[in-house]
Amino acid sequence: DAGVIQSPRHEVTEMGQEVTLRCKPISGHDYLFWYRQTMMRGLELLIYFNNNVPIDDSGMPEDRFSAKMPNASFSTLKIQPSEPRDSAVYFCASSLQLAYTDTQYFGPGTRLTVL
Amino acid sequence: KNQVEQSPQSLIILEGKNCTLQCNYTVSPFSNLRWYKQDTGRGPVSLTIMTFSENTKSNGRYTATLDADTKQSSLHITASQLSDSASYICVVSPYSSGGSYIPTFGRGTSLIVHP
């Protein structure tokens, strides 16, 4: 398996524009997670899905952020409208289950810069 | 409020030397603690995971310890190599009878190994 795939790897956009980040989890993994990483706040869990259903989105910072998982092999994180403070690295991760023994496998991340 | 504090924030050592990274947490009730290694420009990779009943776990030259009473963990790296240069992140997950999963992340220790 190629691991978790994220696209694009880098995104530069202007304030007010819509941004869509994409993720393909590892095949067979039931859980998908979206994280944000900044120098100031470190890693933060934004939302996670189980079998394509959002379970907890309490980490989503504002209504400008939305995430979907239309099928087991694809998820998107959308920011509309984007703001400079959204600049961060966004990671997608997947795992087989949620048990503590289950390892989350992270993608390479999308570095987002909002000008 | 659940918190995870890591120290030192950064560390520089010579190749071949040992080092120890610290993690203190206030997450309660406690479920498990993970250490991740994050290379520059990559996603985090799990090194070790421990529950409250485990006080040590090894993964090659990496050894993690856990004292659930004092809520402290350490990651010891033996005979450091240049490839150990990375950020090391401590992540603590609470126990939730409702099944939800919201971990608390430390901000990481940046380790640089010099030849």
Textual characterization of the structure:
The complex is a heterodimer of chains A (115) and B (115). Chain A is mainly β and 115 residues long. Chain A has strands spanning 5-7, 10-13, 19-24, 31-38, 42-50, 53-56, 65-71, 74-79, 88-95, 105-106, 110-114. In chain A, the strands form 2 sheets. In chain A, strands 2, 4, 5, 6, 9, 10 and 11 form a 7-stranded mixed beta sheet that branches. In chain A, strands 1-3-8-7 form a 4-stranded antiparallel beta sheet, with no helix packed on it. Chain A is globular, with a radius of gyration of 13 Å. Chain A starts with a strand and ends with a strand. In chain A, 35% of the residues are buried. The mean pLDDT of chain A is 93. By secondary structure, chain B is mostly beta strands. Chain B is 0% helix and 57% strand. Chain B has no helices and 11 strands. In chain B, a hairpin with a 6-residue loop joins β4 (30-38) and β5 (45-51). The termini of chain B are far apart. The mean pLDDT of chain B is 92. At the A-B interface, β5 of A face β5 and β9 of B.
Produce the secondary structure layout:
The complex is a heterodimer of chains A (115) and B (115).
Chain A (H helix, E strand, L loop, with lengths): L4 E3 L2 E4 L5 E6 L6 E8 L3 E9 L2 E4 L8 E7 L2 E6 L8 E8 L9 E2 L3 E5 L1
Parallel strand pairs in A: 2-11
Antiparallel strand pairs in A: 1-3, 3-8, 4-5, 4-9, 5-6, 7-8, 9-10, 9-11
Chain B lengths: L3 E4 L2 E5 L4 E7 L4 E9 L6 E7 L4 E4 L2 E6 L4 E6 L8 E9 L9 E2 L3 E6 L1
Parallel strand pairs in B: 2-11
Antiparallel strand pairs in B: 1-3, 3-8, 4-5, 4-9, 6-7, 7-8, 9-10, 9-11
